[in-house]
Amino acid sequence: IKIEKKQNPENDELVFPPKNHLYIVMNKPKNCVCSRVSDQSKTVYEILENHPYVKNKFSSKDLEKISAIGRLDKDTTGLLIFTTNGSFNNYITAEKSQISKTYYVTLKNRVSKTEQCVYEEKLKSGIWLEAEKKAGKAFVENQKISWESEKTCFFTIEQGIFHQLRRSFLSLGNEVVELHRVKIGNLELPEDLNLGDVKIFSRKELEISL
């Protein structure tokens, strides 16, 4: 499994230092947040630490320094990577690395074949996202969309702007109903991984093409 990069570090030890690290993939369920502490919702760390396989394989000390790479909203499901490797975490989340993220999107309103072409062109050439909460107005471009039906599609981004996908569809006059991340770079969410389940990856399995 490879995560392709457009800008390579000088050598693989900048991303994968010699020290052994943990790499765990989760199929994140709904109604949980990507933070260590939450008064109202379950956290992804609680799910991870209480998962039977993880509890049997790792001690609480092993998991002390593990962190999620990036975040998914409370209601967004799908691929979430945890690691103790800060270099790898920083590389994947750095904007200059241009690591793509692909989501399976379910929309509220149907989009005809003609409208789909309009969506594709606007998302590629660039659209303005209206300000939302802590995020100001922003211009985004080179967003890719592949239609499955009039209400479902695969959406790929390289930026990581706050609520980027949801705000993009709002700018196009539509609304996201369901959002599920299926891919980071070329690392795909394993098909046999159910919501809330995890899979341990080795450094070798996460091969980075440098």
Describe what you observe in this structure.
- The protein has about 210 residues and is an alpha+beta fold.
- It has six helices and 13 strands.
- The strands form three sheets. Strands 1, 4, 5, 6, 9, 10, 11, 12 and 13 form a nine-stranded mixed sheet that branches. Strands 2-3 form a two-stranded parallel sheet.
- A hairpin with a 2-residue loop joins β11 and β12.
- It is globular.
- The chain starts with about 20 loop residues before the first strand and ends in a 9-residue tail after the last strand.
- About 5% of the residues have low confidence.
Helix-strand sequence: EEEHHHEEHEHEEEEHEEE
Which of globular, elongated, flat, extended, rod-shaped describes the shape? globular
Question: Which consecutive residue ranges, at least 5 long each, have pLDDT under 50?
Answer: 5-10
Structural class: alpha+beta
Topology, pairings included?
Layout: E1 23-28, E2 32-33, E3 42-43, H1 44-50, H2 52-57, H3 60-63, E4 67-68, E5 77-83, H4 86-93, E6 101-107, H5 113-125, E7 127-129, E8 138-140, E9 144-147, E10 152-157, H6 164-171, E11 176-184, E12 187-188, E13 198-201
Parallel strand pairs: 2-3, 5-11
Antiparallel strand pairs: 1-5, 1-13, 4-5, 6-10, 6-11, 7-8, 9-10, 11-12
Short précis:
The protein has 210 residues and is of the alpha+beta class. The protein has helices at 44-50, 52-57, 60-63, 86-93, 113-125, 164-171; strands at 23-28, 32-33, 42-43, 67-68, 77-83, 101-107, 127-129, 138-140, 144-147, 152-157, 176-184, 187-188, 198-201. Strands 1, 4, 5, 6, 9, 10, 11, 12 and 13 form a nine-stranded mixed sheet that branches. Strands 2-3 form a two-stranded parallel ribbon.
